[in-house]
UniProtKB/TrEMBL annotation:
Function: Catalyzes the phosphorylation of ribose at O-5 in a reaction requiring ATP and magnesium. The resulting D-ribose-5-phosphate can then be used either for sythesis of nucleotides, histidine, and tryptophan, or as a component of the pentose phosphate pathway.
Notes on how activity is controlled: Activated by a monovalent cation that binds near, but not in, the active site. The most likely occupant of the site in vivo is potassium. Ion binding induces a conformational change that may alter substrate affinity.
Binding site for ATP: N191, T227, L228, G229, E230, G231, G232, G259, D260
Keywords, ordered alphabetically: ATP-binding, Carbohydrate metabolism, Cytoplasm, Kinase, Magnesium, Metal-binding, Nucleotide-binding, Potassium, Transferase
Subcellular localization(s) per the UniProt record: Cytoplasm
Gene that encodes the chain: rbsK
Name of the protein: Ribokinase
Length: 320
C-alpha cells in the first residue's frame, strides 16, 4: 500500500460501477429519429466508482463496495480499480449483467444527458454493507449515493455513524427520502436540482441555495454543500455559510464527471485532515480540471495536478 495514502486516511465508497457508453453529437435525437454522432467512447463510470477513482487519484486509501456481473464490463471494472490502487469489495451477482450508462454529450457546450442501468449493482443490499463493516470501521470517511438501492446506502450511513466515521451522502439521483436518514449525514452534497427535490425550494442563486440548505439543516444534516456548477459550491452549516467559486481550468469538454470529482476530492481531503472549507476548495479545483477532459473516471486529475491549480490560485490571491 502507498504510504502517502496511509497517512492521508481511508475512504470507503459504497455505490455502483457501470461502463459508460458515451456518444457526442450536436444535439439529442427526437423520438423515432436517427442522427449522426461525431464520436463514441467506452470507459469506466458509475457515480460510486467515479468517486472512488477521484479519491484515489487525490491520494486517499480507497475501498470500494459494489456488485458486478460475470462479463466483459466486469473485467473492465476490476482492471480500472487495480490500476488506481483501489481495494474492491465486488462480488458477482449471478444472473445479472454489469451495469451500463448511455451518455449523450453536446458537442458545443459539453453538457450531458445520461441514462443509467445499474445492473448487478442494483442488487446491493444491507447485507453487502454488513460484510464490509470492518472496512468502514477503519475508515476516516464513508461516502455513498443513490444509484444503488436506498436500503444499502442507509445501512452504510448507519454503520459509519456507529463507528464514528465521517459520513458524506451524495443524494443523486434525487429520490424521496424519509426524515430519518438526514441525521446520519455529517455532509450532504446535493446539486441544485437535488436540493430542490429534497426541500421544494427552487434554486436560482446562492441565497436560494441557503434557504434550501437551512431546510436540510432543520432535518438534522450536519453540514450541507450545494454544488452549483459554474457558480461553484455553497458550504452551509449552523456556524458558517461560504460560497466557494468554481475553478476555471480551461475549455469545458464534458461535465459528466464533475459532481463525482467534487465529492471524491472532498472526501479525500477530509480523510487527510483538511477542514470542510479547505476540502471544498480542493473538491472544486478537482472538478474544475475534470470538465476540461472527456469521460467520467478517466477525467479525474492527480493530486499533483489539483495542488498546482490551488497553488496558482493562492499566488494570484496573494498578489492582488
Amino acid at each position: 500500500m502507498n504510504t502517502a495514502r496511509q497517512a492521508n486516511g481511508r475512504v470507503v465508497v459504497l455505490g455502483i460501477y457501470v461502463t459508460d457508453l458515451t456518444f457526442r453529437a450536436q444535439r439529442m435525437p427526437l423520438i423515432g429519429e436517427t442522427i449522426a454522432g461525431s464520436a463514441f467512447a467506452m470507459g469506466p463510470g458509475g457515480k460510486g466508482s467515479n468517486q472512488a477513482v477521484a479519491a484515489a487519484r487525490a491520494g486517499a486509501d480507497v475501498v470500494f463496495c459494489t456488485r458486478l456481473g460475470n462479463d466483459a464490463f466486469g473485467e473492465i471494472a476490476r482492471a480500472t480499480w487495480a490500476a488506481e490502487g483501489i481495494t474492491a469489495r465486488a462480488p458477482v451477482a449471478d444472473g445479472h449483467a454489469t451495469g451500463a450508462a448511455h451518455i449523450f454529450v453536446d458537442d458545443t457546450s459539453g453538457m450531458n444527458a445520461i441514462i443509467v442501468a445499474a445492473g448487478a449493482a442494483g442488487t446491493l443490499s444491507a447485507a453487502d454493507v454488513d460484510a464490509i463493516e470492518a472496512d468502514i470501521a477503519a475508515a476516516r470517511v464513508f461516502v455513498t449515493q443513490l444509484e444503488q438501492p436506498l436500503a444499502a446506502a442507509r445501512r452504510g450511513l448507519e454503520v459509519a455513524r456507529r463507528h464514528g466515521v465521517v459520513t458524506v451522502f451524495n443524494p443523486a439521483p434525487a429520490l424521496p427520502l424519509d426524515d430519518g436518514i438526514f441525521p446520519l449525514c455529517d455532509y450532504l452534497t446535493p446539486n441544485e436540482t437535488e436540493a430542490t427535490a429534497l426541500t421544494g425550494v427552487p434554486i436560482a442563486n446562492p441565497d436560494d441555495a441557503r434557504r434550501a440548505a437551512d431546510a436540510l439543516l432543520a432535518k438534522g444534516v450536519g453540514t450541507v454543500i450545494v454544488t452549483l456548477g459554474e457558480g461553484g459550491a455553497l458550504l452551509h452549516s449552523a456556524t458558517q455559510s461560504v460560497l466557494v467559486p468554481a475553478y476555471h481550468c480551461g475549455r469545458v469538454v464534458e461535465t459528466a464527471g464533475a459532481g463525482d470529482g467534487f465529492t471524491g476530492g472532498f472526501a479525500a481531503a477530509l480523510a487527510r485532515g483538511d477542514d470542510a472549507l479547505a476540502a471544498m476548495h480542493f473538491g472544486c479545483a478537482l472538478a474544475g480540471i475534470s470538465v476540461t477532459r472527456a469521460g467520467t473516471a478517466p477525467s479525474m486529475p492527480t493530486l499533483a495536478e489539483v495542488n498546482r491549480v490551488l497553488n496558482a490560485a493562492a499566488r494570484t490571491a496573494h498578489a492582488s
